[in-house]
C-alpha cells in the first residue's frame, strides 16, 4: 500500500476496530497494522500471502479473521482467544490448525484446501456452530471424542470419506450433515435412527438416492419420533422434510375419500410477516410441472414449487391440546413471526 492509503486504513482501523486490506495483491500484511492491538476484524482475503504473519498473535481482541484466497500453508490462531469467525478457504493448508484456545469460535471455514484428516482438535470447541471443510482431501475422521462436537451444521462435501463414525449420532446439536460426492457406501443406520440430524445431503456417493431413502425408511420404521426424507428437486437443491408420526397417523386416520393420504404444501402471502404455509388435500394426478412429491408409508406429499426452497429442515407435526388442534410446521430457518404465529419471514 502507498503511504496515503496505508495512513487511511490505519486511521479507519483505529476508530472502528475494523481493517480491510483485501484485493490488494499483498505478499505480507503491513507491520503497522499489528500495532492496533484493539483490532476486532481483519479482512486480508484475496491477496498473495504465503507466510503466516507472526504479528497477529498480538491481536488478542480479534473476533473475525478473513484470510481466504491466499497461499497460506499454515495458520496459527492459538493466541486469539476471542476469535469467533475464521474464514480461510482457498489456501494450501494440509491440516486443521490448533484451535484449542479459541473457545469462542462459532464459524470455521477451511474449504478448498488440502486437508486430509478431520482431527479431534475441534471437537471440544464449545461455541462452534458451523464447520465447512468442503473440497478438501479428507479420507480420515478421528472417532475418539466426536460425540462432543457442538456443530449445528457440518459440510464435508467433495472429499474422500469412505465411512462416517457412528459417534455422530451422539452430537446433540447436529442438525445438518452434508457429505455429497464422497466415497460412502451407506449412511450408518444408527445415525439415521438415533441422531438429531434432520438434513442429510448425500448425493454423488457409491449408494443411490433410492437406497438412502429406503435405508432411512427402514431405520425409522420402529421409531415413534420422525421420518426423514431426502431427495433432489428439479432445481438441483436438497429439500428435507421431517414428518412426525403423529402427523402421519392423523392423515391416515381421517375419514376422507381415497385421496386423503395425498396432500399439497404451498406458500402464500399472509399476515404482517409476509408468508404462510398452506396444506390441502389433493389428487396425485393434480401434480404440476416442477412440483415435487415424497411418499412415505401411505402418505404422499406434493410440494408446490414456491414452497420448495423454504422447507429445508422443516418438521411437520400434528398438535392437539385444550386450546387448539391442527397441523403445524416447525422451520429452523424462520427469522421472524407475527404475534399470532400465522405468518413468517425467512
Automatic annotation (TrEMBL):
PROSITE patterns associated with the record: HESB, LRR
Keywords for this protein: Leucine-rich repeat, Repeat
Gene3D superfamilies: HesB-like domain (2.60.300.12), Ribonuclease Inhibitor (3.80.10.10)
Domain Core, chain residue ranges per copy: 256-342
Source taxon at top rank: Eukaryota
Keyword Signal: no
Keyword Lipid metabolism recorded: no
Record-linked Pfam families: Fe-S_biosyn, LRR_8
Protein family: Belongs to the HesB/IscA family.
Protein name: Iron-sulfur cluster assembly 1 homolog, mitochondrial
Organism: Oikopleura dioica (Tunicate)
Amino acid at each position: 500500500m502507498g503511504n496515503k492509503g496505508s495512513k487511511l486504513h490505519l486511521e479507519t482501523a483505529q476508530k472502528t476496530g475494523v481493517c480491510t486490506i483485501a484485493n490488494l495483491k499483498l505478499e505480507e500484511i503491513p507491520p503497522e497494522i499489528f500495532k492496533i492491538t484493539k483490532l476486532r476484524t481483519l479482512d486480508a482475503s484475496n491477496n498473495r500471502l504465503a507466510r503466516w504473519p507472526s504479528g497477529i498473535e498480538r491481536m488478542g481482541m480479534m473476533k473475525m479473521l478473513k484470510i481466504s484466497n491466499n497461499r497460506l500453508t499454515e495458520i496459527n490462531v492459538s493466541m486469539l482467544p476471542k476469535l469467533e469467525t475464521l474464514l480461510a478457504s482457498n489456501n494450501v493448508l494440509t491440516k486443521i490448525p490448533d484451535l484449542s484456545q479459541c473457545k469462542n469460535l462459532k464459524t470455521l471455514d477451511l474449504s478448498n484446501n488440502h486437508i486430509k484428516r478431520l482431527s479431534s482438535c475441534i471437537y471440544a470447541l464449545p461455541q462452534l456452530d458451523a464447520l465447512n471443510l468442503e473440497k478438501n482431501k479428507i479420507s480420515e475422521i478421528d472417532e475418539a471424542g466426536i460425540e462432543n462436537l457442538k456443530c449445528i451444521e457440518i459440510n464435508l462435501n467433495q472429499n474422500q470419506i469412505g465411512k462416517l463414525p457412528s459417534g455422530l449420532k451422539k452430537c446433540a446439536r447436529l442438525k445438518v450433515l452434508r457429505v455429497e460426492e464422497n466415497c460412502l457406501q451407506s449412511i450408518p443406520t444408527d445415525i439415521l435412527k438415533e441422531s438429531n440430524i434432520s438434513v442429510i445431503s448425500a448425493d454423488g456417493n457409491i449408494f443411490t438416492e433410492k437406497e438412502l431413502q429406503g435405508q432411512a425408511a427402514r431405520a425409522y420404521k420402529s421409531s415413534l419420533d420422525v421420518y426423514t426424507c431426502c431427495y433432489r428437486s428439479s432445481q438441483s437443491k436438497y429439500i428435507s422434510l421431517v414428518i412426525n408420526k403423529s402427523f402421519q397417523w392423523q392423515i391416515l386416520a381421517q375419514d376422507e375419500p381415497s385421496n386423503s393420504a395425498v396432500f399439497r404444501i404451498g406458500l402464500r402471502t399472509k399476515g404482517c410477516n409476509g408468508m404462510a404455509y398452506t396444506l390441502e388435500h389433493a389428487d396425485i394426478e393434480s401434480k404440476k410441472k416442477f412440483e415435487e412429491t415424497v411418499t412415505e408409508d401411505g402418505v404422499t406429499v406434493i410440494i408446490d414449487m414456491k414452497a420448495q426452497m423454504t422447507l429445508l429442515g422443516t418438521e411437520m407435526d400434528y398438535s392437539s391440546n385444550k386450546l387448539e388442534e391442527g397441523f403445524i410446521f416447525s422451520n429452523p430457518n424462520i427469522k421472524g413471526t407475527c404475534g399470532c404465529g400465522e405468518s413468517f419471514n425467512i
